[in-house]
Amino acid sequence: MSGQTCVDLSRLPRFVDISCVQAFHGQADIEQLAERAREGDFVSAHVLPSWISFARGLLEGSRTLVGGPAGFPSGGSLPDVKLREVQRLLDAGAQEIDVVVNIGRLRSGLYDDVTRELEPIVLLVGGEVPLRAILEVGYLDDEQVVEGARAAVKAGMRWIKSGTGWSGRPTTSHHIALMAEGALGKAELKAAGGIRSLETVEAMIDLGVTRFGMNADAAMDLAAQASAR
Fold first, then answer.
1. Catalytic residues
2. 50 to each of 14, 25, 88, 163, 187, how far by Cα in Å?
3. Are 45 and 33 in contact (CB under 8 A)?
């Protein structure tokens, strides 16, 4: 995609979002996330939909955006339900939205179904906020990763994200290379799920990643390593 941002490791937090999206996370967890987002100057903090408004209030005046997911984490919501959830995220003030594709249909080779589900979401958001399609690569074979990226691009998605971080299967550089193959330079790439070393970050940047999603502990550790170089 022309005009992609070049990731500057010395400013790594501005290319990393941290999250608090487990079902058991409560108000204290969201407050701690916001505090760490401010402290680390991370580009965004992602929370579950019910916490969007609360997180926006906590991060008012900071440079950190507040994002939230739709169809999370399974991707199996009915298309109209997922579309409605995206609308409600916008209404609540979400400044970024990550949408989980229908993983089961993707694994079934029903790639046109994936495109058809995403198209009305793209139209609804209309570029108002960054919108990403999550593929959940840990559940996919190589062909499915490539075709999932293609399906998302065909729907008009300008960002493709590797995973939710819930699968327990880390995103690898191989996954990113496959995503890049499918995206054909028409979408930016976000890597998330099990990224724990600066070497992995650098390898993924070389493959075209311009945004990372991490838990706060890993993000702060890697940011400290990058700034110490």
1. 98, 161, 190
2. 25, 11, 10, 21, 28
3. yes
Q: Which domains does the chain have, with CATH numbers?
A: 9-227 (3.20.20.70)
Q: Give the pTM.
A: 0.95
d(CA 162, CA 151): 14
Q: Helices 111-125 and 142-155: crossing angle, nearest 10°?
A: 40
The residue type of 31 is: E
CA pair distance 128, 148, nearest whole angstrom: 23
- Assigned token pair, 106: 């993707």
Which of 124, 190, 187, 116 is CA-nearest to residue 157? 187
The tens digit of pLDDT for each residue in 176-209 reads 999 999 999 999 999 999 999 999 999 999 999 9
